[in-house]
Model the fold of this input.
Amino acid sequence: MPVDIVILAAGQGTRMNSATPKVLHPIAGKPMLQHVIDAAKQFGEVEINVVIGHGAEQVRERIVETGINWVTQAEQLGTGHAVQMALPNLRESATVLVLYGDVPLVNAATLKQLVMQVDENNMALLTVELDNPSGYGRIIRNSNGDVEEIVEQKDATEEQQKIKEGNTGIMAIHQSRLTGWLEELKNDNAQGEYYLTDIVGFASRDSVTVNALVSQSRSEVLGVNDRYQQAMLEQICQQRLAKQLMAQGVTMYDPTRFDCRGEITVGKDVLIDVNAVFEGTNSLGDNVHIEPNCYIKNATIGNNVTIKANSVLEDVTIADNCDIGPFARLRPGTNLQENAKIGNFVETKKANIGKGSKVNHLSYVGDAEIGSNSNIGAGTITCNYDGVNKHKTTIGDDAFVGSNSTLVAPVEIENGGFVGAGSTITKTVPEDNLAVGRSRQRNIEGWEKPKK
Ligand code: UD1
Ligand code: CA
Done:
């Protein structure tokens, strides 16, 4: 039987207090709605319908997915009304699986279990046992234990409110049944909404069996209504990922102080010390050591690389055996070749640093090309900006730049060029030349010290 998925994502999310629609708020660097779509896609051949309303434009812009049917619910009249908007897209005799855009950690395996139980005479419902079911619709069962209906919190009697089994909202229904029942929905309830949950009562009236699956994992059914709940789910995701990485051979001294807001792949014997934050897409080779407090975004890092404490890397590629930091800042377009070294308080940007070259202390290297085995002394600055345009500094192989030199770009130091400390270099240093670009030292004899 074909499976059609309907993801409800039209609500405002008032309690987020945000200009951004709730379903776009991220968990582990990915919009909540994207998590749900990714779970839905694990079905393979499915049609995915997403019902949007509040911030619809923003949602469509942010979620870059092909093959989704976007359905607009202009007015949010309730979950039943939302599903109704998607009805014209649903295929005849499909199993319709309803998911919520604000319940992001749903497990594809659970969903498959639900879908398997559906035909014209069976629907499926995911429920959860809660210590505090406040806010959830309650599952009403008869004396045989069969599900008879769902009563929303605001419509429930005191007796019904004591029920601990809550509705997750996730359900699967045969298309023909759903179509009929949605037509019958009324909004004569406490919230004046068309409740999707009312179809469960219609099912038991029409002798359709309601197969209730009690979720075995609390986290997969947790919804996000406010930023605190968002943070709780974030933690769950981070802990899961930390565990996965450790299973792949990563050492973490404290997995509760690990954050990856995006994707990460790792080699063997990687060490990630505390408070490392990864964003975007990162890959770490074998024996990569990340010391405390590093921020790493979109980095491709080879084997045997050490990133020392408090370093910041963004849009960089680092070859094998490089050494970076502490307190280094590698900005976009920095590429280090094998055995290169970037030391403390060094900033790089659009810079290719060749094999075995070193920029060890207190430098700015931007718009620069450095060959292999060159040494850039402490405090060297590439003056790449003339106030209007950026210019390039080219340094060959085996060059040596003395400390506190300023290299006024565009400028080139050829292979083996040697720059005396404190020089201001404005024109080419030819191969193997020594360039000294500073006024000579004068020693003045018999000089009298100033007096008080
Ligand atoms: C719903 C369920 C409740 C369940 C709970 C679990 C109903 C009537 N109630 O209540 O039984 O325990 O979820 O979290 O279904 N939405 C739309 N259009 C609308 C209204 C809602 O797209 O007109 C979307 C929201 O964006 C959200 C989802 O549907 O993603 C759930 O809506 P929400 O208002 O949060 O329902 P709850 O009151 O939490
Ligand atoms: Ca909700």
The helical segments are 32-41, 56-62, 79-86, 108-116, 158-161, 175-184, 198-205, 227-247.
